[in-house]
Each structure stands twice: as structure tokens, then as C-alpha cells.
Amino acid sequence: MSKSNGAFEIVRASLLDLNPVRELENLAFEQDAWPLIEMIGVLSLPSIERWKAVQGEKLVGFVAADIRRRQDLAWIATIAVHPDHRGLGIGDALMQTVEERVGMPAMRLSVRATNLKAMRLYQRRGYEQIDVWPNYYIGGEDAIVMEKKLTK
After folding, report:
1. Whole-angstrom distance, CA of residue 51 vs CA of residue 81
2. Cα(102)–Cα(49) distance, rounded to whole angstroms?
3. What DSSP character marks residue 88?
4. Which phi and psi (to 5°) does residue 134 adopt?
5. Can you tell me whether residue 137 is helix, strand or coil?
6. From CA 149, how far away is CA 152, in angstroms rounded?
7. Is residue 89 within 8 Å of 73, Cβ to Cβ?
8. How much is the CA Rg of the chain, to the nearest whole Å?
9. Which residues pair with 26 in a beta bridge?
10. In this structure, how many other beta carbons lie within 10 angstroms of the beta carbon of residue 22?
């Protein structure tokens, strides 16, 4: 399955995308970028839905969601858009794709309390705050936990 809006295309990601995804994570998150071993897991474990946004051959966005069948929900483990390509609808398209593919009744995510731009995107997509994890991120910043009810 792939989706395209003309400016970018959403396609499945795989372990073959390890280096570009790591580069994107480091660029987008700096101190919160995932370690190599965790990124390998995100790109290879069968319980993970993973999608990338590409412009030609260039990776400009990535999302991964952990499907937790026992909890009847999925967690967006990571979502990143290249800073030079933000504001083009890539994050929204990645979220829509992964929400459609997880097959769970709910999706959760966590976001830095100061990442207001990301929170606005999530709120526009129907996510609501359900919890706060104090001192969750490096530097002691709180995580805002958000959830959206999905249809199976």
C-alpha cells in the first residue's frame, strides 16, 4: 500500500531504511533520538506498523506504532518529519496511515510538554490528553500522554 499527494509518497518502511531513519531521528529529536538497538527493533519487530514519507528517494518523514493486542491499543513509538519539510502535511499523512493500519480501537502517544506544534497536530487529529508522566524526557521535562479512539 502506498499513498501519494504529489509532493510526497507514504510507503512501508523496513530495516533497509535504518540509516536514513536514524539520521532523521537525530535531526528531529537531538537528545531524544532512539539508540541504534531500539531503532533496529522498531524497523524489524512484527508487532510494529512502520511507514515512511519519501520525496523521490529522500526520506522526509517516519512513523512507527507498537500494536499491543493485550491492551487493545497501539502506541505511536515515534513520528518525525524532516525540519525542512514541516508544514506540508507529512506528519498528518503519516498519522492517518498508521491509524488506518493498526486495527486497534485506540491509539496513544507521548509528547514533550513544550512541543506545542506537535500537540496541535495531535489535537486536530482527535487526540486528547489522558495523563502526564513527570520528568519523562531527558532534561526532566514532562510527557503529555494523549489518546484517540479509532474504529477497528
Report:
1. 12
2. 7
3. S
4. -65, 140
5. coil
6. 10
7. no
8. 14
9. none
10. 18
Cell 506537535 sits at which residue? Answer: 118
pLDDT tens-digit readout, 108-124: 999 999 999 999 999 99
Which residue ranges form the domains of the chain, and what is each CATH number? Answer: 2-109 (3.40.630.30)
The x, y and z cell numbers of residue 145, run together, are: 500522554
CA 91, 97, 102, 106 dihedral sign is positive
Pairwise CA distance, residues 57 & 139, whole Å: 35
Instruction: Tell me the C-alpha distance between 21 and 91, whole Å.
Output: 15
Identify the segments of the chain with pLDDT beneath 70. Answer: 1-6, 152
| Alpha helices, H only, 1-141 | 18-29, 36-42, 90-101, 116-124
pTM, whole model, 2 decimals? 0.91
